[in-house]
Specification:
14 helices; alpha/beta; 17% strand; Aspartate Aminotransferase, domain 2; binds pyridoxal-5'-phosphate; 2 domains
């Protein structure tokens, strides 16, 4: 009997014992193609020799030094490398151990920044419906996914949620994509004005929405308008690239595609590529200076921030991405994956939308393509597809609640950047079979 507290108490899970490129192997020798990189984590696959060596070397040299006393060479080098590539005025890197820690730190830094500048009234955070920013209490409060929030609602701080930019489901038929984007971006201005501009500290959003919606990218012009509104009212723009960042969309930083830069940027997942748990919050020089010239310290911290082995892994991952031009590869393989998905499912009666950027792709399933109406949530279609796919040797990331946290189903694909053309065919074949099998049971 296991003493591990698993995610689901009734699931009977195989034991993973090895990784080989894009595949995971269980104790019975069964191979699974990792078509979602777990949850958009394993961007380099499961056996990258350079990253494994970097981790081994670092743990042999220096396993840990608490950042309250010392800095470390890999943390310094990784911060330099990230900032050399980062958009806009991002100038400082605060290392953490995962995505939720990055978004929590971002929320707290936004608050402290305004305090340091003598604007203590700024306390409101605005985020979007159907977003996910993590599972710790601050991050969960920021997220707008009803299903994840529901049972913890009494514990969550008040956060305003405006509309997402979800063209497939929410653009009006008589509206251009651009006009739709401007309309929903302008909800931010309306909410700032409703709350009182002098009380709003930050707006948080995922450039491409991941877990909750299935690779939903914004329409052209949306984030430019968001940036404008934030600037006009002195509201910090926090972009959560925990899932969509680190090359996943075909850009090292996802917001590069939208031609804007945030004041604070959160990354994780692909930064450690699964070789170590690591995340980071990047902030502008202006924010850093406000703290440095004010109280002198960020009232935050965890034991493992800036961990030498985690940062050594992150450094090796980013070096691999850059030296092997894997971000461009992600962009071109992403186009091939999209083409293969459209070719296979473009006329499927229950596939409403195939979307995303780079190797971050979503398929939205609908009961009726014409009306875009979702399947009855009671059917649990996403869970059925997940099971059928896993049995068939493909790990993908289906999820229900796509539309509003309850209704809708999608499948998220986020394979390693090293995926080959024959492996794209393998993914599409296995997915096709899983969707057919799952639909046959509803
Ligand atoms: N933010 C986004 C956009 C995410 O997708 C996730 C995880 O899926 C998180 C934050 C939380 O990251 P973690 O699970 O590493 O805490």
């Amino acid at each position: 009997m296991s003493h591990v507290f698993p995610r689901h108490t009734k699931a009977d899970l195989p034991t993973a014992v090895a990784g080989d490129g894009c595949y995971l192997i269980d104790a019975n020798g069964k191979r699974y193609f990792d078509g979602s990189g777990g949850a958009a984590v394993s961007c380099l696959g499961h056996s990258d020799a350079a990253v494994i060596r970097a981790v081994q070397d670092q743990v042999g040299k220096l396993a840990f030094a608490h950042t309250g006393f010392m800095t470390s060479e890999p943390a310094e080098a990784l911060a330099d490398l990230l900032i050399s590539q980062a958009p806009g005025d991002l100038d400082r890197v605060y290392f953490v151990s995962g995505g939720s820690e990055a978004t929590e730190a971002a929320i707290k830094l936004a608050r402290q920044y305004h305090l340091e500048r003598g604007e203590p009234a700024r306390r409101h955070l605005i985020a979007r419906r159907q977003s996910y920013h993590g599972n710790t209490l601050g991050a969960l409060a920021a997220g707008g996914n009803a299903w994840r929030r529901q049972q913890f609602d009494p514990l969550l701080i008040g956060v305003s949620h405006i509309a997402p930019c979800y063209e497939y489901a929410e653009r009006k038929p008589d509206e251009s994509a651009f006009d739709y984007g401007q309309r929903v971006a302008n909800e931010l201005e309306a909410e700032i004005l409703r709350l009182g501009p002098e009380t709003v500290m930050a707006f948080m959003a995922e450039p491409v929405v991941g877990a909750t919606s299935g690779a939903v990218a914004p329409v052209a012009g949306y984030f430019k308008r968001i940036r404008e509104i934030c600037d006009q009212y002195g509201v910090l723009l926090i972009l959560d690239e925990v899932m969509c960042g680190m090359g996943r969309t075909g850009h090292l930083f996802a917001c590069d595609a939208d031609g804007i830069a945030p004041d604070i940027l959160c990354i994780a997942k692909g930064l450690g590529a699964g070789y170590q748990p690591i995340g980071a919050m990047l902030c502008s020089g202006q924010i850093y200076d406000a703290v440095a010239k004010g109280s002198g310290f960020f009232q935050h911290g965890h034991t493992y921030i800036g961990h030498p082995v985690a940062t050594a892994a992150g450094l090796a991952v980013v070096e691999q991405m850059l030296s092997r031009d894997l971000v461009s590869r992600c962009a071109s393989m992403g186009e091939q994956l999209q083409a293969a998905l459209v070719d296979r499912f473009g006329d499927h009666p229950h596939v409403g939308d195939i979307r995303g950027r780079g190797l971050f792709r979503g398929i939205e399933l609908v009961a009726d393509r014409g009306t875009k109406s979702p399947f009855d949530p009671v059917l649990g279609l996403a869970a059925r597809i997940k099971r059928a796919s896993f049995d068939g040797g493909l790990i993908c990331y289906p999820m229900s609640g796509t539309r509003d946290g309850r209704q809708g189903d999608h499948i998220l694909l986020a394979p390693p950047f090293i995926i080959s053309q024959p492996q794209i065919t393998e993914v599409v074949d296995k997915l096709d079979l899983a969707i057919t099998q799952a639909l046959a049971t509803v």
